[in-house]
Amino acid sequence: MIELGRMARTWQEAGRELWGLLVGIGAGGGPGNRVEALGTDLLGEIPDLRRRRELLAREGAGIERVAWMVVSLTMMRAVKAADRRLYARLIEAGVDPADMPRGEASDVRAWWEHLTREQRRLYLRAFPALIGWADGVPAVARDKANRFSLELRLGELRERRPGTLTPFEIRDLGRLGRLADKLASVERDTGQKAYLLGLSSTLAGPWDRHDKEVPFAASMPRFVTDPTKGPDGRVIIAIGDPDTSRHTGIYVPGTTAQLDNIEGDVDRVMSLWKQSQKYALKNEVSTVMWLGYDAPDGIVADAPRNLYADAGAPKLKKFVNGVRVGQKELEKHLTIIGHSYGSVVVGEAARQGDLAVDDIVVAGSPGMHVGKAGELGIGAEHVWVQAAEGDPVPNAGRIGHGRPDPEKRWGVVPNIVPLVPSDPLFGGQVLETDTQGHSDYWNEGSKSLDNQVKVMTRTYDNFVPTDDPVLKAD
Looking at the DSSP assignment, which residues form a beta bridge with residue 414? Predict the structure, then answer.
């Protein structure tokens, strides 16, 4: 650092001398000013570089930590290039993404709570995408960050001259506009605050279609069936604050879910919230639409693959842990509801252990990567299953996502017949369902919807037998 300081001051002095020489011969002094400015910029960076060196020395220079330091330095440089005044305020206030924990949601929450009000405000202003996806940060702050990101992106696209938008930008403008309208309509229809807990429309995943507007590494797989250009997008929306709710239901959608068509999935969590008012007070319930993963694009080519669930399960667990950290109180009740391929993601997350939920509900499940409900880690009595008449997905998906009963053998030969949650041998509690097909489990006024809500609001513990979830008759 001492040598860097000397170098910076040398550049300053050289720039001033060059300026004097150039002016003395009647030439412009611009080159001298630029050399001096380089020295001044370097001097300004030295305190930040020194602090980063001390962080690495104190915490250890593991690969992940060094990588995050590089990423955070890049983020700081981007702010500096876009807004030097904001950058100066970040330095003055001690705001740096490198300080944010990258591990447990509880560590993120502790970090956030120790920030000053000014530091929080600056993180939201300078790094909205980072805070918007940070599991452990309060829902109120995440909502502010993501709404700011939404406004920035919409403003950027709307200000462009007609005819200059790429096909992907036209697509993005349309779906983000619809998202903004949907958030407003949810609040009108429910009288509850809609929290935007995650939003990404421009970050490409490994299975998004590649084109010139969205750069991809050459090694990324190209086996996609979605013909639209650019990322599918990720989004998380909550009706009511999950940090303060007594009952929280997290809905995970399945195949073909993306930012472009998310309105239907939001309608489902709105139906869950509205029906919950039959069993709980208005501010006691939060329902969440979690599309925090890249869902399969095609039913035939993509849905049978495990890789979407393998990638999505850790993200789901992190989000659930973040909700739990925000709730703090142990008596809060959390239910996760997986539809179609969403139940595969839920099953994979639960199979890995430590999925911090009280109840699991699956509807139209093609399998959960386990052969018995007891393998999901919350007790078979808390695994609830719906399979409507005419829903082809449970049988169609069992080869790809069903698993055999680990306890059943034919003599010395292990069982190889894959089970899905709606099979009696799976051991879950099969709920009465009065809807038809794969997509109507959330129809208003249906027993299918009411039974999900009964589980979500934990009516089985309220000592009112008529409120208990209704099981399918044998």
Answer: 409
- Can you tell me the mean pLDDT for 190-219? 68
Dihedral (CA of 56, 62, 67, 71) sign: negative
Max Cα-Cα span within the chain: 100
Report the share of the chain in percent with pLDDT over 90.
63
Q: Is the per-residue pLDDT at 321 higher than 50?
A: yes
Beta strands (DSSP E) in 364-453 are 383-386, 403-404, 409-410, 413-414, 418-419, 429-430
Residues 6+ apart with CB under 8 A from 122: 86, 89, 90, 93, 95
> Parallel, antiparallel, or unpaired: how do β-strands 234-239 and 285-291 relate?
antiparallel
Pair 360, 252: CB distance under 8 Å: no
**Residue bearing the bigger pLDDT, 306 or 414:** 306
Do the Cβ atoms of 256 and 299 come closer than 8 Å?
yes
Torsion of Cα atoms, 356 then 359 then 365 then 367, to 10°: 50
DSSP E strand boundaries for 129-219 = 194-200
**329: which 2 tokens?**
């109180």
Q: What is the enclosing helix (H) or strand (E) of 418?
A: strand 418-419
Residue 297, Cβ density class (10 Å: 0-12 exposed, 13-18 middle, ≥19 buried): buried
Look-up of token digits 């250890």: 60
Q: What is the 3-state composition of the chain as percent helix, strand, coil, each rounded to the nearest 5? A: 50, 15, 35
Averaging pLDDT over each range in 35-39, 201-205, 375-379, which range is the top one? 375-379
Give, in order, the Cα–Cα distances in Å from 360 to each of 114, 251, 384, 429, 452.
Answer: 34, 10, 6, 10, 10
Could you say which DSSP state residue 422 is in? T
Measured CA to CA, the distance from residue 153 to residue 171 in angstroms comes to: 13
CA pair distance 203, 168, nearest whole angstrom = 12
Whole-number pLDDT of residue 222? 40
The pair of structure tokens assigned to 354 is 């430590």
Amino acid at 215: P
CB 244 within 8 A of CB 432: no
Per-residue model confidence (pLDDT) at position 416: 80
Reported as a single tens digit per residue, the pLDDT across 40-64 is 665 666 566 666 556 555 555 555 6
Alpha-carbon distance of 227 to 209, in angstroms, equals: 7
Q: What pLDDT is stored for residue 186 in this prediction?
A: 98
* Residues listed for the chain: 474
Q: What is the pLDDT of residue 250?
A: 98
- What's the CA gap between 77 and 81, in Å, rounded? 6
CB-CB neighbours of 411 under 10 Å: 5
- The two three-digit tokens of residue 16, written as one number: 């001033």
Local confidence band at 5 (pLDDT 50, 70, 90 cut-offs): low
Annotate 415-435 with b (16+ C-beta within 10 A) or e (fewer). Answer: beebbbbbbeebbbbbbebbb
